[in-house]
Amino acid sequence: MSRTMLITGGSRGIGAATATLAAERGYQVAINYRSDSEAAERVVSEIEQAGGRAIAVQADMAVEADIVRLFDTVDRELGRLDVLVNNAGIIDQVARVDEMSFERVDRMMRVNVTGPFMCAREAVKRMSTKHGGQGGSIINISSAASHRGGSGEYVDYAASKGAIDTFTEGLAKEVAAEGIRVNAIRPGVVRTDIHASGGNPDKPDNSSKGIPMGRAGEAREIAGGILWLASDEASFTTGARLDIDGGV
């Protein structure tokens, strides 16, 4: 019986790379997206053409009812959930803290922190042996910014990822005896289009000199770490924060 992985923000970048790699390794994959249905369907089509099974499900991570509907859809169409990858997240335009609006910071925290909390809540309800589940794995996508601060660029984004680091450790301890492992990946600068959405499309190239390995990462490299944490090879790993950042 195939295992099932749900990836929030799975239509592009790290999420899409994780979806295709997971399918290659035998997972059924649920790809969540907020608005770009065409991109999500392209990932689904690629997986299906390779012989895998995938579905795309629209849901906004800032809306609780959408999150509940997302998990209900996965239950109905794919069955038992084994792995949740809390990948969906946003950045905003480069700005100092004294230039940020309340609305910007509120949106950042709702999508990057509250959304993953609510997704984890729904996953625990399904995975925990306390609730009749059979265990599972939750992998939160944090960022190297969580311990570097994002000064002069995205302090709000960095702060949201710092919250994810703390959330990962706390939840891991809370559900460890219930068959659930909770870990985080902290990518450095990765070549994805999220930088363009923040008005900084050249960031991967411009950051290369400050990365000890001399280059930005690729989405597939982050996906490899996610699939390892989801696997039985990581069976004694929980509460960990795995840095995949080229040495920064």
Automatic annotation (TrEMBL):
Q: Which Pfam families match?
A: adh_short_C2
Q: Enzyme class, one word?
A: oxidoreductase
The family database entries (PROSITE patterns) matched by this protein are listed as: ADH_SHORT
Its domain of life reads Bacteria
* EC number(s) given by UniProt: 1.1.1.47
Task: Report the GO molecular function annotations.
Answer: glucose 1-dehydrogenase [NAD(P)+] activity
**Which InterPro entries does its entry note?**
NAD(P)-bd_dom_sf, Sc_DH/Rdtase_CS, SDR_fam
Q: Does the keyword Oxidoreductase apply?
A: yes
The protein's UniProt keywords, in alphabetical order, are: Oxidoreductase
Q: Does the keyword Oxidoreductase apply?
A: yes
- Family the entry assigns: Belongs to the short-chain dehydrogenases/reductases (SDR) family.
PANTHER family per UniProt: OXIDOREDUCTASE, SHORT-CHAIN DEHYDROGENASE/REDUCTASE FAMILY (AFU_ORTHOLOGUE AFUA_5G02870) (PTHR43639), SHORT-CHAIN DEHYDROGENASE_REDUCTASE FAMILY PROTEIN (PTHR43639:SF1)
Name the chain's protein.
Glucose 1-dehydrogenase
